[in-house]
From TrEMBL:
The chain crosses the membrane at residues 87-105, 111-132, 153-174, 180-200, 212-233. This is Putative ER transporter 6TM N-terminal domain-containing protein. It comes from Elasticomyces elasticus. The keyword Transmembrane applies. Residues 1-44, 271-297, 425-446 are annotated as: Disordered. Residues 1-16 have a biased composition (Polar residues).
Amino acid sequence: MEQQSSPQSASSNGDTAKQEDSTKQASPGSEAAQKQDPKPPSKLKTLWTKLGLDPLTLMLMLKGSIPPTIAISMYQSRAVATQYSTLGYLVAIMSILGFAIMPRAKFLQTMALNIVATCLAAAVNLLALYCVTQARLHTTPTGRPLQGYNSSASAVCAIWLIIQIYLANVIRAARPQFQFPVIIYSIFVSVSCTYGVEFPNMVAAISFMRRLLEAFLTGFALATATNLFIFPVSSRKVVFKEMTGYLMCLSGMVKAQTAYMQSMETIDPVALRRKREEEQDGKDKSKAAKDSSSPLTTPASLKLAELLIKTIGLHTKLHADITPAKREFAFGKLEAHDLTTAWRLLRLIFVPVIGLSTSMNLIQRLAAELHWAEPGSTEEEENTRIEHLENLHFLMRQLHVPFARMSVAIDSAIQHVLITLELTKPPRKTPDEESKGDQPAPGSPTFVESYRSQVEDFYHSKKITLSEWCKEHEIPLPDDFFEATSAKPEQLLIQDEHRRERYQRQLFFTLYLEYLLYRASLAVLDLVQWVETRKQEGAFKSKKVIFPGSKTLHKWLRAVFGQEDLSNDGSYTAEMDSGGSEAVYLGEEFARRKDPEHLPPHNTRERVGEIIRRLPNFFRSDASAFGFRVVCATMTIAIICYLEASQAWFLKQRLLWAMIMVAISMSRTAGQSTFNFA
């Protein structure tokens, strides 16, 4: 698999995950010496890290500016200016709306739909201009010139504009994948139906339509050439680097969780509260206000929360990018079904790792409810508070060693996956590392068996944790407790209901954390085994031309004109139209509403009745309401063009741009539309 440069999110998230201090995960008694902190980074480097910029991001920023720059530069030529006349600005606009920065598969699909929409708009609007010129011809008195204002021609133009804008935006609301084609169609319609009021005959209309179509297609050609030949980025390249950052984030989440639990071993909420009060009295008020949201907020918890947000964001983006990558024709090693399997296994790791982070919310909620950050007003309350804290400290100390060892093992397993998939290069071994020989290094043939034994050891260590917890709370366990036994749990616990409930919650919390980490380690083991299996099958020996299967192509064609699952889509379309990205597509049967009082049709007359019943359903649908709103917004501006007193002023002052802004900015939700306008 070819090496790729990381996108912005994958790079920043991967870097965050790799920067976790591995020395914190070392078990007690380790002989490894603590290294001194490195030299603090410079302000410029800190700013660069916060911005999340990397070489690929800068190249994409430059790449997006190339098509409109070329369009404006070429317009300086007299030959080009003569060819496009006053429509040259549309070349630059279409080169931007072509979105040359998209990955190749997404770009080609969107560009194909854009070209179809443009050609369809040219054909429909040529018919509209024919109707306009005929209306002008039949309402102009004989002997008078056909130029100038004509109310009939203006009315026909307005009708065609209303109908096309309405139908186009109904499709836009019902099928979010047509977001950009509908925007381009709307711009084409707006230009045609405003300038069309001036055309005296079809000769002028055909000449205008030819130049308009050429302007649109020239802009698309610039975007296509830029996408394919200047800093080309394939969907698979994006997905592979996102997978790299995603795996590093998952490893970093486990490390951050372990570090957070270690910070809870000796935490004193009262001392933390006093420290924040001192900070509020000093200069660092902003930091104190930020960290005072919870009595147990520590740097480790803030690090875990920050990494959690980045991991979820990258998970969402990878979910949106994996489908175009499977549909792409490519030259590489992993096939489309390999991407499907890898993404399924990654999601199995994601669930328990995210579940582990909920321990932070549980502990913070308990601290807020029991007022751990406030000394007790009585001796009994203070003793109760101290008892709760001591129990928390004991639990965290009990989980320290197994969690530290397992987090290191999971990190090594993820490194093994990255090395085997050729997403990262294997690290160079130092002489000390080569002389150890205790644990196989990631990427070695015997690593899988070594990691499996570590997972089994962690599973058996849960017995030790439970035995020590029961010993600490003076709960005797039978010798055969971990074997088949008929003893009931009630016989093993104390009789005090209040203490029993409190101890039970502590025990279940401990078992919950251990089980989640165990499930995460098993999910990582499944991924490691799959990668090793594909390696033994020879999947990584040489590159080959990869064609998507017939099933993938069939789904692609259905997705182009049908409904797609765009839930939490991190794509470009979702940013423009968040309303269309919230509905989860569950299949045709779930989309079809059942009517218990109306049976399915059985004959021709009933089928005709079904068609008639669909008409009112269509006009009262959300998509129809959105189309009507766009028509109202568009005609609020366009009406100026169709009145005699203001038509010349409209065309001279180019109010057409206001109509274009409506086409670009309107979306199904009022809030998103307002944001886009702003």
